[in-house]
Amino acid sequence: MLARSLGCTLAGIRARLVEVEADISPGVPCFDLVGLPDSPLREARERVRAAFRNSGLDFPLRRVTVNLAPAYLRKEGPGLDLPIAAAILAATGQVAPEGLAGWVLAGELALDGRVKAVSGVLPMALAARASGQPGMLVAGPNATEAARVEGLQVFAVPSLASLAAWLRGTERLAPPAGDGTGEESAEVHADYAEVRGQQVARRALEVAAAGSHNCLLIGPPGAGKTMLARRVPGILPGLTAAESLEVTVIYSVAGLLPPGGGLIRRPPFRSPHHSVSTAGLAGGGRPPRPGEITLAHRGVLFLDEFPEFRREALEVLRQPLEDGMVTIVRAESAVSFPARFMLVGSMNPCPCGYWGDPRGQCACTPHAVLRYRSRLSGPLLDRIDIQVEVPRLDYGDIERQQAGESSAAMRDRVLGARARQRERLGPGLVANAEMGPAELRQHCRLSSAARSLLRAAYDRLGLSLRAHDRILKVARTVADLEGAADLEPRHLAEAIQYRALDRDPTL
To answer: Among candidates 228, 293, 219, 216, which has minimal Cα distance to 254?
Structure first.
């Protein structure tokens, strides 16, 4: 007898529907699983057998063949346990095959028959809705996540025995506890009012947030670089509905969504340790999973002690900083992950940290400073729009009692600048940092005085064409913060001042 059910497998951050066919035929008892399953999925045979036995269900002592279609698509993970078991139940006549029609199933089976949660249920639910399926059966902890997709009926399946009873009409399955539309728990970000002094760095980070520009903070230890960087999320605008769903899908695939929470509505902030591997930063593994740069999509990736990261790990940033996408290529497949993030880095000017500090004693030789700086390649630094010095504070700044400007005030200006950018750029582009050559020509026209200033900076600093374009983007953001329609020399002058490493490569 032949029966079918529907499941899902992940390919990057997208899900593909899988048709599970179970055939029961006479012959020596065996259980064959075909259709390009990976190792964890091949182990489903033992999990399904034990789950049947411990749930009081009859596993057929005949030849069992389960096919996962389409055959060319590699199937990954244990999420197909439940549809495999359901197809076998229908093929053996223990439930009516018609009961599985229109339902997409996802869940891992424990040996006692319990249905356990799996990662990536949100993109699976989106794939189910896109294919026209009316409903989804998932593990209890995944039910609220699947219910975030509007127009999809979702039921929580506690065990294989409960699924069989529901298909027979003798038991009801519970709907999810919530509809998944609730707000995520409010995350309290530290306030810039707590930061003393550092007006230049604060202004640079406000410009960076307004245009989603990459930023590098350079200064001696204890100057406040980390303190400044960790407050950036508090001045960023919230995610749009489309961005919120996109980010939540990424965290679903990575298994980082809290159970029962709503969509992620605030830009993520990721701060990996400098010992992170290349795969941990860019993504990878078998199957490929999102790395830190994808988890920072539409948010901030903070790399503290920038030169201490492995050079090969840092170099993988070059493609996503340019394209907003990272592609992981394997022998059997290639997957792409979105990675449009705002990079914020911090570094000391030398190994000991006191090069150029008038009140510190640097013990580094010029060769040691050059070797330290060379850990960051020229092409990578060229992709960082804003490079700003963070000097040691004067005691007067520390002693001053009045608080600095709050994050709320800075955020209001950032929101105003982003609104001007949305109106000017139209759909498809979020911020000035994403402008291409065509948008630069259209929105960054220069007066003769501004062009003369930029030409002088280009020749004197030895800028690349990429640095030239990034100066224009930053200048456009400075003008947006001011509410100016045209680029003036003062806007370009401020943008040029943010190229600290171009002005003085010994920093």
So the answer is: 293
Q: Which CATH class is domain 192-412?
A: alpha beta
Q: Do domains 2-168 and 192-412 have the same CATH topology?
A: no
Q: How many other C-beta atoms lie within 10 A of the C-beta of residue 445?
A: 12
Per-residue pLDDT of the chain (507 residues), as tens digits, is 899 999 999 988 999 999 999 999 998 999 999 998 988 889 999 999 999 999 999 999 999 999 999 998 888 888 999 999 999 999 999 999 999 999 999 999 999 999 999 999 999 999 999 999 999 999 999 999 999 999 999 999 999 999 999 999 999 998 887 655 555 544 557 889 888 888 899 999 999 999 999 999 999 998 889 999 999 999 999 999 999 999 999 999 999 988 776 789 999 999 999 999 999 999 987 778 899 999 999 999 999 999 999 999 999 999 999 999 998 887 667 888 999 999 999 999 999 988 878 777 888 988 998 899 889 998 999 999 999 999 888 777 666 656 678 999 999 999 999 999 999 998 888 899 999 999 999 999 898 899 999 999 999 988 889 999 999 999 999 999 999 988 999 999 999 999 888 766 555
Residue 1 in contact with residue 93, Cβ under 8 Å? yes
In whole angstroms, give the CA distance from residue 457 to residue 388. Answer: 17
Domain positions in the chain are: 2-168, 192-412
Contact 349, 355 (CB under 8 A): yes
CA 449 to chain centre: 42
Contacts of 392 (CB under 8 A, 6+ apart): 219, 220, 222, 223, 357, 359, 360
Q: What are 136's strand-pairing partners? A: 104, 154
Question: Which three-class secondary structure state does DSSP give residue 503?
Answer: helix
Name residue 342's amino acid. M
For residue 197, the Cα-to-chain-centroid distance in whole angstroms is 33
Q: List the one residue out of 307, 288, 295, 244 whose CA is nearest residue 270.
A: 295
Token pair recorded at residue 270: 């990721």
Establish how many alpha carbons lie within 13 A of residue 264's alpha carbon, considering only the half-sphere containing its beta carbon: 24
Alpha-carbon distance 260 to 173, whole Å? 18
Domain 2-168: give its CATH architecture: 2-Layer Sandwich (3.30)
Q: Which residues contact 137 (CB under 8 A, 6 or more apart)?
A: 82, 103, 104, 105, 106, 107, 154, 155, 157, 163, 173
Contacts 24+ apart (CB under 8 A), 251-254: 251/295, 252/119, 252/120, 252/121, 252/122, 252/123, 252/145, 253/10, 253/12, 253/13, 253/119, 253/120, 253/123, 253/289, 253/290, 254/119, 254/289, 254/290, 254/295
The two three-digit tokens of residue 203, written as one number: 């202004």
Interatomic CA distance for residues 475 and 472, integer angstroms: 5
Q: Which two tokens stand for residue 206?
A: 């406000």
